[in-house]
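Reopening this one. Same input as before:
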Amino acid sequence: MSGAALLSGAASAPDAEALPALTVEGLEVSVRTEAGLRPLVSGLSFTLARGETLAIAGESGSGKSITSLAIMGLLPPPAVRITGGASSSAGPSSPTCPRDGCAPSAATGWR
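Same output, byte for byte:
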């Protein structure tokens, strides 16, 4: 899934309605195994505009639920964790991703 290009900076602050509601860039989720980290989701990027609906479709085990749980901050630690990528939200604040984007985490690398 490839998202639309991010809005470029303008001379004045963009209208909040024009900002994407959610942007995910390069999401990587891995599971810890005896052999080390094994990728479950790799390099997922998309942009979701206000009022837009995104459907994530795929075969069983393709990472749909893991992707959703990662975005919501609900992955079961320490076995499964976000190992790369960034997220930003122009919507209302939430416990996992405040209005100005998710706080950087040394443990996950997720923003």
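So the earlier flakiness isn't reproducible anymore. For the record, The two ends are 20 Å apart (CA to CA).
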